[in-house]
Design a protein that fits this description.
about 220 residues; 11 helices
């Protein structure tokens, strides 16, 4: 009975976290993809999923989907503007004319994404920066698939990084016990360190990312 009680309490936390992640935005909600499904099943089993609750959930899903759609469409228009105006070529050529090594560009790329990730949603970061940065990084010999995975990783690190760290607010609001933002930031630091360590491994061993896609393309 004790184990069952513990399990239900954990499921309740999952349910609360999934609701909080939806209110925090698309990137936070995507991180808990399995949680909404779990919360849905739990609500069915406990008979707490009424018509009003289902309607509210569908409204929240519609809002989240609309936000993602607007961001993607806006990013496409922004990329089209950059291409037609020639700004992509101008900025890319200016960056390439610096003549620094490829890893200097990579360090700048990491810093840029990490800083932007503190304040902006990951999807918005990628649609705003990749039209400019992709040609620069590709010219330095970085694999497109590798760059895509690293970009996603950097954007997700950004939403955990002080001083803002959007996902930190999600964790704080979903905690079953009162915690301060400082405590949450302290708690996520080891995970941020491990994420940066994984980035170092991706740079040293790019095959960790590219091996399977290259194998499937043969």
């Amino acid at each position: 009975m004790a184990a069952a009680s513990t399990c239900w309490r954990a499921c309740g936390l999952i349910s609360r976290r999934s609701r909080t992640s939806r209110s925090a935005g698309p990137s936070a909600g995507a991180r808990f993809t399995a949680c909404p499904a779990s919360a849905f099943l739990i609500a069915l089993v406990k008979r707490k999923l009424g018509l009003g609750t289902l309607t509210e959930v569908l409204k929240e899903a519609a809002v989240t989907t609309s936000v993602i759609f607007i961001i993607v469409v806006g990013g496409m228009l922004f990329a089209r503007f950059l291409t037609y105006s020639g700004l992509v070529d101008i900025i890319s050529n200016a960056l390439l004319s610096l003549g620094t090594g490829k890893y200097t560009y990579l360090i700048g790329y990491v810093v840029l994404f990490t800083i932007l990730g503190c304040f902006i949603e990951p999807i918005a970061i990628m649609v705003m920066t990749l039209p400019i940065m992709y040609p620069v990084m590709a010219a330095q010999g970085f694999d497109p698939i590798w760059l895509g995975v690293v970009s996603v990783k950097l954007a997700e690190i950004g939403v955990l990084t002080p001083p803002v760290g959007l996902n930190v607010f999600v964790v704080k609001s979903s905690s079953p016990v009162p915690v301060t933002l400082g405590q949450v930031f302290t708690g996520v630091m080891p995970f941020i360190a491990m994420d940066f360590l994984s980035l170092v491994l991706y740079v040293i061993f790019p095959g960790m990312i590219t091996w399977l896609p290259n194998l499937m393309s043969k």
